[in-house]
Amino acid sequence: MKIKNISLKITVFAILILFIIPSTTIAQNDSLRNKTKFGVKFRLGGRYDDVRMCVASPAGATGGTAADISIFMEFNVSQKSVAHIDIPVFRPVLFGLAFEMLQFEPTATLKYKKHLSEKTNFKTGPMIGISLHYGPDYNSEQDNPTESFFAMGPIVGGYIGFEFKSPNKKRSIEIGITPYAEALFGINDSANHQGYVFGGLFDLAINFN
To answer: In terms of pTM, does the model score above 0.85?
Structure first.
C-alpha cells in the first residue's frame, strides 16, 4: 500500500518507534521478555472537544464519540506495579486513509495492582500521554472542510480496572475505565487554535504473556 498523506506517514512512523523497536529489545532480553505482556485493547466512550473536527458529529458540535483499537505492552516495574504503554492504531490509520487527518494519542499508565484472588487483580493508577492532531477544527463540515492545522498537547488521566486470568495464566482479560483531560495548542497555526478535551473510555483488553 502506497502511503500518500502526511497524517498516515506520521502514524506509521510513530507506531514503529513506540512499539516495534521496544518490542525487539524486549525479545532479545530474557529477563524483560518473561515480565512483559502484549495485547490488543478495544475502547469506546465519549468526549467534549472544542478544538478538533469529529467525523461522527455535525459541524459546530463540541465533542462526540471516542473509540479506538490499540496495541499495547505491559511490563512489571515492581511486585505491585506495572507500566502500560498504549499505542492507538485503528483511529489514526482510519483517519489518515479516509479523511487525511491525524488524531494520534499514545499514553503510558503506571498501574498499581492488588491481588484479590489467584486469578483476579485490581489495577489503578495515573496516566500521561501526548495528543497529536492534523485536520480541520470542530466547525468544519466533511463536504466543505475548513483549513487543516497542526495541534498538540499533553494528556493526563487515570485508570481503574480488574484483570481476570485464564486457568493456565498465559492470557488474561482486563476490563476498566479511563477518564482523561487534554490541552491542545495550535502549532504554526494562523488561527491559533487552542482548547480542551475531556472524556472517558471503557476499555476491554486482551493480554498475552
So the answer is: no
